[in-house]
Design a protein that fits this description.
Elements: H1 2-11, H2 15-22, H3 25-30, H4 33-46, H5 64-75, H6 81-91, H7 103-107, H8 112-130, H9 134-148, H10 153-173, H11 184-194, H12 205-217, H13 221-226, H14 230-235, H15 237-251, H16 255-274, E1 279-281, E2 287-289
Antiparallel strand pairs: 1-2
Helix pairs in contact: 5-8, 8-9, 9-10, 10-11, 10-12, 11-12, 12-15, 15-16
InterPro entries: INTS8, TPR_INTS8
Protein name: INT8 protein
Main location: nucleus
């Protein structure tokens, strides 16, 4: 393993990444101080204008393009790449998560190096979404989309779906907070996702749920009531709930009363689905506590 680590650093052209890896706890444990100094000296001799001690370390989220250059450099010695994966997994162990529904399509990529790159970019893009770092998520997803477009229509559609969800999150966290209506293009893409009929494309249920909640938030009641595909309504209870809410708001009498009542109805639904303590009534009408659960497990997000 020590031999592979040395060769990994010697085979990388991006010296910032070399320094990041050589500073890792696993690397320090395996290398003695003099061996580590010797390795860094070799790096300096190869590129004397770079000062590894003073040059800032590259942030992981700033280097989606660097992974492509790394893949080219390691292609001749691909036996080193599992070592890089080992180090990365140790650095970000609980952050490497890709939804199970995407597993088969990623594992179906024949080229091992490309498969690793797709996994890296998708996993870290999803992680950025989870921590609301939408700018870096956009960069990572865009890099992944560019990578898969040439060889996999399925993965291309997967990335387009994830970028749609990202755009929904971005609007709701930005302009949507002030009540600014989303652009018509985004609404059209949301409708297009719900109407999509591409076979064999792995779909995450949360995307359909967020699309329906998005349309409810922006009063697209006519569309939800009349145009959502029947198979989607029958297979996803969240979509069915959204359709029922939209139909109820749409059928309320009187324009002024309708707007007020529809708003009140949706506010109550949001409140019920967002509280941490869920309650239910027994046959005698009394409220009884059930198991506590986090608000993130609510029916819909606002």
């Amino acid at each position: 393993l020590l031999y592979l680590l040395r060769n990994l650093c010697l085979g990388l052209e991006d010296l910032q990444l070399v320094f990041m890896i050589s500073s890792h706890e696993l690397f320090i444990k395996l290398l003695k101080d003099d061996e580590r100094k010797l390795l860094i000296d070799q790096m300096r001799k190869r590129s004397p204008r770079i000062n590894l001690c003073t040059k800032p370390v590259t942030s992981f989220y700033d280097i989606p393009g660097n992974f492509h250059s790394i893949s080219i450099n390691l292609h001749a010695g691909s036996y080193l790449f599992p070592c890089l994966r080992l180090l990365c997994a140790d650095l970000f162990s609980e952050k490497w998560e890709v939804p199970n529904v995407y597993g088969n399509v990623i594992l179906g990529i024949k080229d091992n190096l490309t498969r690793d790159l797709v996994y890296i970019l998708m996993a870290k893009g999803l992680h950025c979404c989870a921590i609301k770092d939408f700018v870096h998520a956009k960069q990572l997803f865009s890099a992944c989309l560019e990578l898969v477009t040439e060889f996999s229509p399925k993965l291309r559609q997967v990335m387009l779906n994830e970028m749609l969800l990202l755009d929904i999150y971005t609007h709701e966290a930005g302009a949507g907070v002030s009540g600014e209506r989303p652009p018509s293009d985004l609404i059209s893409r949301v409708r297009g996702y719900l109407e999509m009929r591409v076979p064999d494309i792995p779909l995450r249920q949360v995307i359909a749920e967020e699309c329906v909640a998005f349309l409810l938030n922006w009063c697209e009641n006519e569309y939800l009531t009349m145009q959502v595909p029947l198979p989607l309504v029958q297979t996803n209870p969240y979509v069915k709930l959204g359709q029922l809410l939209a139909a109820t708001c749409k059928e309320l009498p009187g324009p002024k009363e309708s707007r007020r009542t529809a708003k009140d109805l949706w506010e109550v639904v949001v409140q019920i689905c967002s509280v941490s303590n869920q309650h239910k009534r027994g046959n005698d009408g009394r409220v009884s506590l059930i198991k506590h659960r986090e608000s993130t497990l609510g029916i819909m997000y606002r």
